Amino acid sequence: MIVGILVQWKMQLDIYSLYLLSITSAVVLVSFFFIPLFSRFKLVFANGILINLLFFAFGAMLAWQKDIRNNKQWLGNFYKDKNGLVVTLDEPPVEKTKSIKANATIQYLIQNDSLLPVKGKIIIYFKKDTSLNLQYGSQLVFKKSLQEIKNSGNPGGFDYKRYCLFQGITHQVYLKSEEFEMLNKEKISPFSNFIYSIREKVLNILRTNIQSKKELGLAEALLIGYKDDLEQSLVQSYTNTGVVHIIAISGLHLGLIYWLLSMALKPLQKRKKIRWLRPVLIITGLWLFSLLAGAQPSILRSALMFTCIVVGDSLARKPSIFNTMAVSAFILLCINPYFLWDVGFQLSYAAVLSIIIFMRPVYNWFYIKNKPLDFIWKLNAVTIAAQVLTVPLSIFHFHQFPNLFLLTNFLAVPLSSAILLGMIFLCILSIIPSAALLFGKLLTWLIWVMNTYIEKIESIRFSLWDGLQINILQTLFLLAFAIGITHWLLEKKSTSLKLGLISLLGFVTLRSVAFINSNNQQKIIVYNVPQKTAIDFIDGRNYRFVGDSDLLADDFARNFHLKPSRILYRINDLENLNELKADGNYIDFKGRKILLIDETVNYLTIESKATIDLLVISKNPKLYMKRLASSLNIKQVVFDGSVPVWKTQYWKKDCDSLKIPWYDVSSNGAFVLKLN
User: Fold this and answer.
1) Over pLDDT 70: what percentage of the chain?
2) Residue 141 has what pLDDT?
3) Closest CA to 526 of 596, 621, 611
4) Which of 112, 449, 586, 596 has its CA 20 to 30 A from that of 257?
5) Number of helices (H) and strands (E), helices first, in the chain?
6) What residue segments make up the domains of the chain, in order of their start?
7) Facing residues of 610 across strands?
8) What is the distance of C-alpha 651 from the center of its chain?
9) Partners of 171 in the beta sheet?
């Protein structure tokens, strides 16, 4: 099924071919029941192939159906600039740094004074001075042109377009107060409204009783997964120290909720007539909390697993944990096959599998009689076991490894559990405001202790191994190596050892080739950074940055736009790059002549017509392309992310008339020029 989902996303198979494959497989499978038993036994291999083909087709059809672009009523099939739109806000608007953001569902397209029902979702950014009372369910009408969601196009950058598409979102728009009208009616789902109202009440309780902004942001994320008030620097600290799973609502949180509900409803177990009520209330409580926390894949997985456990216990059965995981994964992928690309989904299943398989062998390394010390070792054994299968995935996605993860998890896991229980108690205690405020101060102090501890660990120089880069094939080799070697250690099978060693050889070979390529690379990269100039000159594994210095001081912008590329190409900053010679706006790199124009050019004092291999235009200079071309022989023009769109249009027309190749990073992504 997973293979079917992956193949459909990569190859976009025709739906009728998938129907034909599934029907053919099903018919042939049914026909097996009409042949003699002995013949059926001989054809068992073919039977297995047909079953797998059926699930392959099923997975591919799920992926096809979930792709909004395959819907005949999709917005993109009908929309034209300046069409009117009727939309409904899917969530309460959230305040961002420069705007107010909300996701919205398209209800109607207004064409020729008629309403056309369409399907699709968009992101709306409202100007901050918007004074209208926007809320969940508000319906708006506007005619401003939508913009298709695009990636920055910088090497190694996050695929934001795919991320939005997996949620059915394909367009975005920025609206000022005078550019839209609110309708008098609202379109509200009673259940969603109930969840949002409870969520808002919980947030109000936390905001009233936890008055420190930094601690409040973590409290909101920890209890219900609300991350809009969470400081980015704090998230980075938790990521760098290997405890970001505390902030992400997961099985740890739901396990505590399950334990609380089990303890509170234990008296019902003793009464035969209403014993059935206990599992019903536990499952209801688990799912309500999951929906309250935003129905993220990690918590939905945990809710499904605990539901299977509760059902099994009520039927006096103990299902295999592997079957429970398989059922939860199957149901989640049926709900949304694109959960497969969710990092939390991958890490959750890898961590649980790793703990199930390796926790007991790791725990048995030491025998400790003292119960408190034994409990501490058990916590560390769980943490170590979880790393076996999650480390390759973590390196692939986050390009780093927290060297001191044992130290951080040792305090953070039990302390965060205590804080979570405390916040649930705070919500109950909120009916007594004075007591809740006092208890809130205690929780604030506990969160401060945890934050301070994490930040202190992060400040240790060797706490993080950063800048790691592996591709998908290397990740698979690492996973195969971990599985093979651990299976050999547990079962003493030579086949597993061979698998592990061959996988290690494959990983080392691919990595060696990657480093050889990195050492020989020569590139010029003009990045797509909005309103900024950013260029990297790369020679081997060293680079020199040319551009706006304030970009280097902005940690978020640098990490988002520039760092992924530098990790991808395995390069380090070298202030004095020997191959680069700069004279004002003229740069000579590896024999290539680069001219950077970021201010008004009145005239050029050049006696003979010089050749410029790369002309980079930045900011908003007063520039006449025809006059410039009369003085210079220009081979390539690049407009960076700081150039106004309206000016770029004029310069593009001039370049076309002069037959000079041009490239616009704002619309096409980063410009990468390979020199060898």
Assistant:
1) 95
2) 93
3) 596
4) 449
5) 24, 24
6) 2-66, 75-188, 472-520, 522-674
7) 632
8) 37
9) 122, 148
CATH number of the structural domain 75-188: 2.40.50
- pLDDT at position 604, please? 52
Closest Cα partner for 385 from 466, 490, 470? 490
For residue 264 the two structure tokens come to 């509170």
What residues contact residue 517 under an 8 Å CB cut-off, 6+ apart?
none
Residue 242 neighbours by CB distance under 10 Å: 27
Helical H segments across 399-493, by residue range: 405-429, 433-459, 472-491
Checking if the pLDDT of 605 tops 60, the result is no
Q: Across 149-163, 296-310, 569-583, which has the greatest mean pLDDT?
A: 149-163
- What pLDDT score was predicted for residue 565? 93
pLDDT at 283: 87
What is the b/e burial string over 327-359, where b = at least 16 CB atoms within 10 angstroms of the residue's CB?
ebbeebbeebbbbbbbebbbbbbbbbbbbebbb
Q: Burial of 18 by CB count in 10 Å (0-12 exposed, 13-18 middle, 19+ buried)?
A: buried
CA dihedral 20, 21, 25, 28 (to 10 degrees): 50
pLDDT digits (tens, 9 = 90+) for 296-316: 666 777 787 778 778 777 776
- Residue 544 CA to residue 573 CA, distance in Å, equals 6
End-to-end CA distance of the chain: 43
Condensed to tens digits (0 to 9), the pLDDT of residues 388-412 reads 888 898 889 888 888 888 788 778 8
Tokens standing for residue 452: 């301070």
User: By the 8 A CB rule, do 537 and 546 touch?
Assistant: yes
Contact 463, 402 (CB under 8 A): yes
| Long-range Cβ contact pairs of 417-424 (< 8 A, separation 24 or more) | 417/252, 417/256, 418/446, 419/219, 419/222, 419/443, 419/446, 419/447, 419/450, 420/222, 420/223, 420/253, 420/256, 421/256, 421/260, 422/446, 423/206, 423/219, 423/222, 423/223, 424/223, 424/260
What is d(CA 364, CA 28) in angstroms, rounded to the nearest whole number?
Answer: 50
Taking the C-alpha atoms of 104, 108, 110 and 114 in order, what is their torsion angle to the nearest 10 degrees?
Answer: -160
Containing H/E element for 593? strand 592-597
The two beta strands, 100-111 and 169-175, are unpaired
Please state, in angstroms and as integers, the Cα–Cα distance from residue 557 to each residue in 159, 553, 562, following that order: 16, 9, 8
Look-up of token digits 């986050």: 398
